[in-house]
Amino acid sequence: PDRRTLRRFRHVAADLGADLYVATLGGKVVGVIHLSYARTLGGGQRARIEDLAADREYAADDIARRLLEFG
């Protein structure tokens, strides 16, 4: 990846208000989910899916479902 992409990845990975989960299969990245979190004025919390991607070669629907269940 180029420097800009790496810098963006580092910022996302270092963000304490978000999580980035990566699914691997046989050492290959096959899916990713990026979640962000916020507190509301009413005292509750919420999570938002920022990105969800899965490799079509590896049963993308199942990988995406598993990432959603994990996150």
Give a brief description.
The protein is α+β, with helices and mostly antiparallel strands.
* Overall helicity: 25-40%
* Averaged pLDDT: 89
The low-pLDDT segments are none
How many β-strands, per DSSP?
3
- Beta-strand portion reads 35-45%
Number of helices: 2
- Molecular shape: flat
* Radius of gyration (Å): 14 Å
Largest sheet: 3 strands, antiparallel
Structural category = alpha+beta
**Kindly, what is the distance between the CA atoms of the first and last residues, rounded to a whole number of angstroms?**
26 Å
Element order, helices and strands? HEEEH
Q: Strand order within the widest sheet?
A: 1-2-3
Describe the protein.
With 71 residues, this protein is an alpha+beta fold. It contains two helices and three strands. The chain has a three-stranded antiparallel β-sheet, with helices on both faces. The radius of gyration is 14 Å and the shape is flat. It starts with a helix and ends with a helix. The model has no long low-confidence stretch (mean pLDDT 89).
Any descriptors?
32% helix, alpha+beta, 71 residues
List the helices and strands and how they pair.
Blueprint: H1 3-14, E1 18-25, E2 28-39, E3 45-54, H2 60-70
